[in-house]
What does this fold into?
Amino acid sequence: MQNYTLRNVPPELWDAITAIIEETGASRRETVIELIRRGLQSRAGSIRGGQARQQAMTPEERREHARQAVRARWDRRNSRSLN
It folds into this structure.
């Protein structure tokens, strides 16, 4: 994970921080903390969603999903080595 300082914050993130500061009048520190909290909540939700999806799958569906993931990883790896 990248550690950001005020000097190397991506423009999209800086725009989001600026928009929240203007809307709420919050300090820069409070705004950054809020964005981190939102990001962590989103990540936690995606993890729970993935677990629920996996539990709903049959063993055959899980196997096929795993095969597709392996193919995608190898395809991505092979395309990088060719370039």
Q: What stands out?
A: Residues 11-82 form one domain. The chain has three helices and no strands. The helical segments are 11-24, 28-56, 59-82.
